[in-house]
Design brief:
single chain, alpha+beta, seven-stranded mixed beta sheet, six-stranded mixed beta sheet, 15 helices, 30% helix, globular
């Protein structure tokens, strides 16, 4: 009789889990969970988990200060936190810190550390960990905007549970820098391969080119994640990614194209936001003929951005016109989007003045795993034919793109999108300063360098905003790149799931997603 009651109970549990959309994981699955034999009289442990499809593997190093790819930050946003962190509305909220005060006219920041913050390795976060994190970030970060901001720190100290940071001069954007300093344990030395932070999810495992697995941080100080496990499955072939999604093998995929959404037939919910990227045809200024401003301006006139949006995204997306996207409302200058109206005759005239009346040929290296960029490159190549410019498209895998294009600057042109690593406009603009290590297009303009330096030095918000807009104007006037759009972001999610939130940054927050 007892066995019959137990069998009925187990069947009811299984049915309830099925109705709720829960996935069942047992020993032998992707992660650790306990399963007893039927004779033990205990039910199988049920885990709430999802599988997310992503288009690229993570950086070789998962150390938060050495991350370069936006796709890596998108995933590790769930693992690492700063004293403060951005929310989905674009505001900074307390994270490892429970409160903070800004005094001395913006020069002094005092952060009160939250009680009971536990790292993923079980260690309790201390003020010394915070001091170590800031010093290590300042010494090692590859983010030049963060490095520059931290170089202006005059003193950082801890007294009790309060960490005080004093700046050489006021910086209204400093809070965004604080958010970008991930708090890590001082005596932990394996961040590159087995990262440890304070976020709602902790790193579980990684198989290069296959998957990354995060698990719920049970000791998280804040609202706990609803999901027990998130598996990011890597598909560097866009067709394979879409096939897996449409078959139901994936629970969530972001950054889909409008064509993919139109062909989706599995009943998934489709959400639309923006990618918060500046997509452009980026040109290497050390390669002829892109060292000639007239050629670059001609290409801007030759490209019909509106038609490109219609062809690649059914009109979705927002034209940008320079290196700023609309989420940065007070800096974004929408009039620059029409600085170069489509004009084939004007383009030919400028090419003639530059000595290229018969046009020229060049190659666009584009990462093959990003369908929106590949599709855009195809349309641009077709449009440029009208003015005698022949563009060959060379699709390369993501690691090759990172090494050749981004790292070695071995390219003529590429189509890609750049994001802001923080809610700070300077991180978008710092890239194009002449001696910036991230200046992959080799842009060099003394007026731009001076305007950006003046903006960084200014303590007046209105003046700094005007200087940032001056930087954008210079980039537009000199046709630094053929600026295109902030892409629409289509997300397909299993209908049993809800809670996905779009951020004004290129991140994906798994902590808010839950089964209905």
């Amino acid at each position: 009789m007892r066995k019959r009651i137990l069998a009925i109970f187990l069947a009811a549990v299984a049915l309830a889990c099925l109705l709720l959309g829960c996935k069942e994981t047992t020993n032998g699955g992707t992660g650790a969970s306990d399963e007893t034999t039927p004779s033990s009289g205990e039910a199988t442990v049920k885990l709430k988990e999802i599988t997310v499809g992503i288009a690229q593997d993570l950086d070789d190093s998962l150390d938060p200060y050495l991350t370069t790819a936006a796709g890596t930050r998108e995933v590790m946003f769930n693992v690492f936190e700063g004293l403060v962190k951005p929310d989905s509305t674009g505001n900074y909220v307390c994270a490892v810190a429970s409160d903070y005060d800004v005094t001395e006219s913006g020069r002094c920041y005092a952060f009160t550390l939250r009680d009971g913050v536990v790292f993923h390795n079980g260690a309790v976060c201390t003020p010394q960990d915070v001091l170590y994190s800031f010093q290590t970030c300042a010494d090692t970060t590859v983010d030049t905007a963060v490095a520059a901001a931290l170089s202006a720190v005059e003193e950082i100290s801890a007294k009790g549970n309060v960490v005080t940071i004093r700046l050489q001069e006021a910086n209204n954007d400093f809070l965004s820098t604080v958010a970008n300093v991930s708090i890590v344990p001082e005596h932990y030395q394996k961040q590159a391969t087995s990262p440890v932070g304070t976020g709602p999810f902790q790193f579980a495992s990684r198989s290069v080119q296959e998957n990354v697995i995060l698990e719920k941080h049970e000791a998280y100080y804040g609202t706990p994640a609803s999901l027990d496990r998130v598996t990011y499955k890597i598909y560097e072939d866009g067709n394979a990614l879409f096939t897996a999604l449409n078959s139901g093998a994936l629970d969530l995929v972001a950054h889909l194209t409008s064509d993919q959404v139109g062909n989706l037939s599995n009943g998934y919910t489709v959400l639309e936001g923006t990618m918060n990227l500046v997509q452009a045809l980026y040109l290497n200024h050390q390669v002829q003929p892109f060292d000639n401003v007239l050629v670059r301006q001609a290409m801007c006139y030759a490209v019909d951005v509106d038609a490109m949006l219609d062809l690649t995204a059914d009109g979705h997306g927002t034209k940008v016109g320079s290196s700023m996207y609309p989420a940065f409302t007070k800096y974004f200058e929408p009039t620059l989007a029409d600085r170069y109206p489509h004009d084939v005759d004007k383009a030919k005239e400028l090419l003639g003045q530059a000595g290229y009346s018969d046009g020229f040929e060049f190659t666009i290296k584009v990462p093959s795993n990003y369908a929106p960029h590949v599709n855009t490159a195809v349309v641009l190549a077709e449009q440029l034919k009208a003015v005698g410019i022949t563009a060959q498209i060379q699709q390369v895998d993501w690691n090759t793109w990172l090494t050749e294009v981004y790292g070695n600057r071995d390219f003529e042109a590429t189509v890609v999108g750049f994001d802001a690593s923080t809610l700070n406009a300077s991180s978008l603009l710092a890239r194009w300063v002449s001696d910036n290590g991230k200046n992959m297009i080799n842009y060099s303009n003394a007026d731009y360098d001076a305007a950006f330096a003046a903006a960084q030095a200014s303590t007046d918000d209105q003046e700094r905003t005007a200087l940032y807009k001056q930087c954008l104007q210079i980039l537009s006037d000199t046709a630094a790149n053929v600026y295109l759009q902030d892409l629409a972001d289509f997300v397909a999610i299993r209908p049993e799931l809800e809670g996905f939130q779009f951020y004004p940054l290129y991140v994906m927050d798994m902590s808010t997603i839950h089964y209905k």
